[in-house]
Specification:
The protein is mainly α and 137 residues long. Helices cover 63% and strands 0% of the residues. The chain contains 6 helices and no strands. The radius of gyration is 30 Å and the shape is rod-shaped. 20% of the residues are buried.
Length: 137
């Protein structure tokens, strides 16, 4: 009593019309896409969280050194802290802050390279390349 199906079961993993069910056909791809989207979303949230974290040493010491060496740089730092309601600089703003503060300190006759030669060079280069420096009210 065979109907041509070797296993003796009707449909063996297929619908009556001969197609695989949707989840069986696409389930692995859908699961892979969901894991990929969750991974990208989680990475994005983590990077935004990290960007809002305060700067660490030696960056904090360089900013503090610039503020100590230049009244205008100190004023810029105080305005930044007032605008953002923080007592530190956010990581995402460090390059802009160091570029502006290095330029201002150098204009006032301070020597940023004596505070930290490597950061002074990088920040001075950033100040020259920066199209839109950090603007504070």
């Amino acid at each position: 009593m065979s109907d041509g199906n070797a296993s003796g079961r009707i449909g063996a993993g297929k619908d009556l019309d001969g197609k695989k069910p949707f989840l069986r056909q696409w389930g692995v791809l859908i699961a892979f896409a969901a894991v990929g989207i969750a991974t990208i979303g989680g990475f994005r949230m983590w990077t935004e969280h990290q960007a809002d974290q305060p700067i660490v040493e030696p960056y904090r010491a360089y900013v503090a050194g610039l503020a100590a060496a230049s009244p205008r740089a100190a004023d810029f730092l105080k305005r930044y802290q007032a605008v953002y309601g923080r007592d530190t600089v956010m990581s995402k703003h460090y390059l802009q802050m160091c570029a502006v503060m290095t330029r201002v300190a150098a204009e006032e006759g301070a020597h940023p390279e004596k505070i930290h030669a490597g950061q002074a060079g990088t920040c001075a280069a950033m100040a020259q390349m920066m199209v839109e420096p950090l603007e504070l009210p």
